[in-house]
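Propose amino acids for all 301 sites.
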């Protein structure tokens, strides 16, 4: 059952406050020693993260909709129990239903270095047409000098379940043509624009056109180097088989009304950790899977 605003406020830690309105639904603001974040309970979604002394790390569209109906464009949407379009049902919602349902508080931990709290996705019976399984999705955020996100799913059904998933992270960049992404040099990938399976390139990634790639055989952390903002962002991961790199560029951007102006693509890139088809997660009754992303930012000379 969804919590009332007063119930949520009583659960919040000393560095948190409840904002948002009737249209947007509850949004929690966090400020721990100057490390700031915002999380929407609609979608259980991190909207903003800005560690002290740095520019905002996440990109959020200035045309993002906050109506508790459509997905919020930007931040870190939670894609579950499928990533992209459903494999057999074309009319089912893209990226599943976790990002278009309201999550609720489970608990807040105050005695830790990070401002940390857990959310869970209740009311899965309301999604039985899409997901006729008993399961417990839960996400834990740790907000501070670093950002940690742990998304876990426990199978409480008497039968095995299968799903795909991703933490669809939008990063803010100074200019898309002045970034590079390293750490995937040895990873083959699927080009979703062509359907081709491509070998590892042995080189860092530069983006100068529409890009939609699913990288496989991950080997370690990923680095996003930004020449304009003079910073590097490190993305660490566990429980992930794939990293997805996405930028819509000009033509696709024009078809996405909530992305922003005609040049919005220049200020963002998605680097997403997940397990996407064909790398499905299969859980036996009682089993749990945990997908973890850790993000840190460093200034460069």
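Proposal:
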């Amino acid at each position: 059952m969804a919590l009332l605003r007063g119930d949520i406020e009583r659960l919040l830690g000393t560095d948190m406050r409840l904002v948002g309105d009737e249209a947007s639904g509850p949004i929690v603001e966090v400020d721990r020693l100057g490390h700031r974040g915002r999380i929407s309970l609609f979608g259980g979604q991190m909207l903003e993260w800005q560690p002290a002394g740095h520019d905002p790390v996440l990109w959020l569209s200035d045309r993002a909709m906050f109506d508790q109906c459509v997905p919020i464009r930007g931040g870190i949407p939670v894609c579950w129990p499928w990533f992209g379009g459903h494999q057999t049902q074309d009319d089912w919602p893209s990226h599943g239903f976790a990002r278009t349902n309201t999550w609720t508080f489970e608990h807040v931990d105050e005695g830790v270095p990070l401002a940390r709290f857990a959310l869970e996705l209740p009311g899965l019976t309301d999604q039985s047409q899409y997901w006729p399984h008993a399961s417990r999705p839960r996400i834990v955020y740790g907000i501070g000098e670093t950002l940690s996100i742990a998304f876990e799913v426990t199978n409480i059904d008497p039968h095995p379940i299968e799903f795909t998933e991703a933490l669809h992270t939008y990063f803010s960049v100074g200019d898309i043509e002045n970034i590079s992404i390293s750490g995937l040099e040895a990873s083959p990938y699927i080009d979703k624009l062509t359907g081709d399976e491509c070998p590892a390139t042995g080189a860092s990634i530069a983006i100068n056109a529409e890009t939609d790639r699913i990288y496989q055989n991950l080997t370690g952390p990923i680095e996003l180097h930004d020449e304009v903002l003079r910073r590097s962002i490190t993305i660490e991961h566990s429980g992930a088989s794939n990293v997805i790199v996405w930028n819509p560029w000009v033509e696709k951007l024009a078809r996405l009304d909530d992305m922003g102006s005609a040049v919005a693509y220049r200020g963002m890139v998605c680097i997403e950790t997940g397990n996407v088809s064909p790398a499905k997660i299969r859980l036996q009754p009682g089993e749990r899977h945990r997908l973890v992303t850790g993000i840190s930012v460093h200034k460069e000379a």
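The radius of gyration is 19 Å. The chain has a mean pLDDT of 93.
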